[in-house]
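Structure, all two chains, one model.
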Amino acid sequence: MKVLIIEDDRSTADYVAGGLKEEGHDLDHAASGPEGLELACTRDYDAVVIDRMLPGLDGLSIVRALRSAGRDAPIIFLTSVSGLDDRVEGLEAGADDYLAKPFAFSELMARLNALARRSPLRKEDAVLKVGDLEMNVIARQVRRQGQAIELQPREFRLLEYMMRNRGRVLTRTMLLERVWDFHFDPKTNVVETHVSRLRSKVDKPFETEMIRTIRGSGYILNVPS
Amino acid sequence: MFLPRELRSISFRVALIYTVFFLGSVLAILGTTYLAASSEMTGILRAAVADDMDELRQAFRSDGEAGLRHEMEELLERASQDRFFLFRKPDGSVISGNLPTDLWRDGWNESEIPADRVRPSADIEAAASQAPEREVRLISLGERIGPFEIMIARNLRALHETQETILSAMLWGGLVTTLLALAGGFLISVGPTRRVDRIAATMRRIVEGHLDLRLPVSGRRDELDRLAGDINMMLARIETLLASLRQVSTDIAHDLRTPLARLRQRLESVRRKERSLAEYEAAIDAAIGESDAAIETFNALLRVAQIEAGTRRSRFRRLALGEVVERVCDIYAEVATDTGHTMSWDSVAAATVDGDEELLTQLLANLIENAINHVPAPGRIAVSLHRDGDTAVLSVADDGPGVPEGEREKIFRRLYRLDRSRTTPGSGLGLSLVAAIVELHAGKVEALDNAPGLCVRITLPLAGETG
């Protein structure tokens, strides 16, 4: 994966660059707004990470400029933690995802993976299949090994999100935002509770486990190996 | 300008303006008197001159030249330093009289005889000696009767004396009025100026840091008292805010120093000697956990501050509060079950409010989590939403240990934690976030006794029919 990070804070940029290189990805770094915009316009990237506050040209303007120039590389927008409104503005400007600083590298990586490997064809498939697990989104039915599984609406949403992102690590925060629309950090085990309920229905009655916990990162749904 | 404070005061200025008007009216009255007296006295003199002339004319008409001469003799006997006559031939030769011949003027005239010409007559000399500039002012009527030219004149001294009396009355009256007004204005402003001085002195001391001082109130309930009262209220509010700010800074410093110190201790102890890889990993994980907790506290503080700033209000939209309640309760029901609690949400009424759905979701989530974390299992948590007049009332009640009466209001303060809660998870910011969100929505939050347990009741205004 080839990633561009536009970030003027040296330590944040180094932190991201170090992590991406360890994971075997290519990285370009721009320390100012104009420099970043030029790189993003002239080279192809699998994902672009843009900070909100930049010298020369702010992050929002870069996002808008890229989108109006027809560049469709996935964009992750970095906001300050108190910037509740920045997030909405960033998404409205055309960013695909946002992340509040300070963030954990695993969180950024999970989001980059979720965005970069998104296949443009697989937009709203009505039938999702992962191994022997099958979901009909329209009829709202789930089967595994041909056996029907009864799910609550919120369990269905959780499973649908995991199946659409099969093979990718989904962090706790990603699940909270996408499945429950919670934009804060709960002080109880909301995610753990719901994932374990889903597991008891999708995995427990069967031989193999599809939903796995990645310690310190999140969850992943995959074809059992 | 270096004027004493009293002379620059408002009351002094008012007194001065009043003086100008008062002085104006005094001068107007005296001026009118002056003009009226002048014209009245001139009239009297003119009538007297005209009467004398009439008598002469009468005598000439009835007895001819002899009668006129006789009458003239009689008049001349009454000649004095106030009353003058000139009886001459048209060629200028004087027949009789107490005026020099070259003063002859035809008709009505007012004239002055300069000092160097007062010699010709003893009467004029006598008149001149009484006038300050040694000149004589006359009002005269000159007429031709038969073959003679006759001029009768009166001394204008009396008129001028009266005029001067009135003028000096005006001058002295104006002077005294002005002085009295200045003195009065000064005296009037001494009192208020002293009070303002005392207020200013107190304010300077407050600026120096004596925030507990209050402005003096005289008890007269006048405008200065009202002003001082309002300023005192403001000072009390500022003092409370500053105290809570100071408390919050201290609490923040304390709350963040603790995890940082623990983090340092862990790192130091693992560094002291060589350890296994597993031990290193455990230490690093623990360190990450500690720093995450500190970051989380910062995040929550910033979030509370941002909500309190009120900028989110621009994102308000109309929403069904009942749906938020259903959704959040549905999510937490299983969490509560896992922790051994029973959660119920009934009597959820339809209520539309103008608000921020994301924040209202967090508000309810915080209240439910607060109950889950502080009520020992098996506790009951009941959420309800009903309408009361033009408000929506959302309450989260539990049957846990509750909060002692005196501390119930304090639980909405930043970083405030009951002593027994020090060991349970949480930053002590959940409820202050709730309070900030309620405040943003122009609502009210109360902590009530659920006997047993705690009931947090939130009242939000329902959305209006229009707008």
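Chain A touches chain B through 24 residues (CB under 8 Å).
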